[in-house]
């Protein structure tokens, strides 16, 4: 059985996210229905070794000319160097404007392949086949594509919506436990933003999902995609409400950049810690009851995710973090923007954050 969630808003061509089991084997029929001249897979070396042949065979079985280009697994592949390598391969393979890119992998592959598709001949179609929990619940939906630079996270990119998203729950069976928890962070984030009952379910009946239980995972993917689809449908380019999806990211991206995007923190772990910090900062500023910040932190920590700077083996400097936050894409005219909360399930955007208050908060949190 599959669940189909529409992503539609009028600002872009509508598409559907299909969630179910066995979808990798059905990729050929799904992609062939879009009638591309070719369907070229972009993946990473780890995912290609596990799932590449299933998808390639399915595409070929549906009569599609195909091929595959891989990048090394990991955040470092969201780079100009790998973007150029992928684009060069697409050119060398002779893809045309009616060819289609199949992004097979986690958020790194989806962001990189999506940006390559946005740039190739000024934009060709792409289909997302997310193989991490994080990519299924978040990065494959909504059309944000990007690479990092040493100056910051996702600073070079484009909005380019996929034509279809195929989220195969069975693909998650091979995902390492750390990566399941990392994706769970973005799931928790969706509850923290706008669905307190979902957040409580994730910490109760649904908690087995954080340990990889496929039924709980499927429900978590479906609810997350419903929430994200509704928000991006209203606000594709983050003019307003979409910024809520950035809860935990202003802190989280600053931490990732300070760590040079190494493996000390995954993106999901940085977001988990960033969400806990956003709630504590909200409580400190009198915007949210302390008990709600504790509720948020307890739910995150129960899933085995970090909630405190002291959970990370690195000495962060408050000024360096503030400088990173000032370079965040939400900052306007030098003013910091933060996504804050009134309670679990009730996030809001504050576009006029006092940098001195954040600095004092970071020092209280343990930054130097
Ligand atoms: N575009 C968006 O809206 C959006 C949203 C959230 C996150 N992101 C981005 O997504 C990236 C993080 O994505 P991620 O957490 O998926 O990391 P990832 O893509 O690096 O994947 C994590 C690891 O899991 C491996 N892997 C993937 N699927 C597997 C499978 N089925 N079995 C075994 N191993 C598998 C990968 O090879 C990699 O080593 C970050 O760069 C983040 O900025 C983008
Ligand atoms: O889709 C969105 O919008 C998000 O903010 C989702 C985030 O989880 C994701 O990490 C996104 O890539 C962050 O976007 P950015 O604009 O802060 O780079
Ligand atoms: Zn994120």
UniProtKB/TrEMBL annotation:
Domain 3-dehydroquinate synthase N-terminal span(s) in chain numbering: 69-181
Family of the protein in this entry: Belongs to the sugar phosphate cyclases superfamily. Dehydroquinate synthase family.
Cofactor(s) named in the record: Co(2+); Zn(2+); NAD(+)
EC number: 4.2.3.4
Transmembrane segments: none
Function: Catalyzes the conversion of 3-deoxy-D-arabino-heptulosonate 7-phosphate (DAHP) to dehydroquinate (DHQ).
PANTHER family xrefs: 3-DEHYDROQUINATE SYNTHASE (PTHR43622), 3-DEHYDROQUINATE SYNTHASE, CHLOROPLASTIC (PTHR43622:SF7)
Annotated InterPro entries: Dehydroquinate_synthase, DHQ_synth_AroB, DHQ_synth_fam, DHQS/DOIS_N, DHQS_C
Name the UniProt record assigns to this protein: 3-dehydroquinate synthase
GO molecular function: 3-dehydroquinate synthase activity; metal ion binding; nucleotide binding
Superkingdom, natural source: Bacteria
Record keywords, A-Z: Amino-acid biosynthesis, Aromatic amino acid biosynthesis, Cobalt, Cytoplasm, Lyase, Metal-binding, NAD, Nucleotide-binding, Zinc
Binding site for Zn(2+): 186, 249, 267
Primary enzyme class: lyase
BP-aspect Gene Ontology terms: amino acid biosynthetic process; aromatic amino acid family biosynthetic process; chorismate biosynthetic process
Gene Ontology cellular-component terms listed: cytoplasm
Cofactor note: Binds 1 divalent metal cation per subunit. Can use either Co(2+) or Zn(2+).
Pathway participation: Metabolic intermediate biosynthesis; chorismate biosynthesis; chorismate from D-erythrose 4-phosphate and phosphoenolpyruvate: step 2/7
Presence of the UniProt keyword Nucleotide-binding in the record: yes
Binding-site list for NAD(+): 107-111, 131-132, 144, 153
Coiled coil regions in record: none
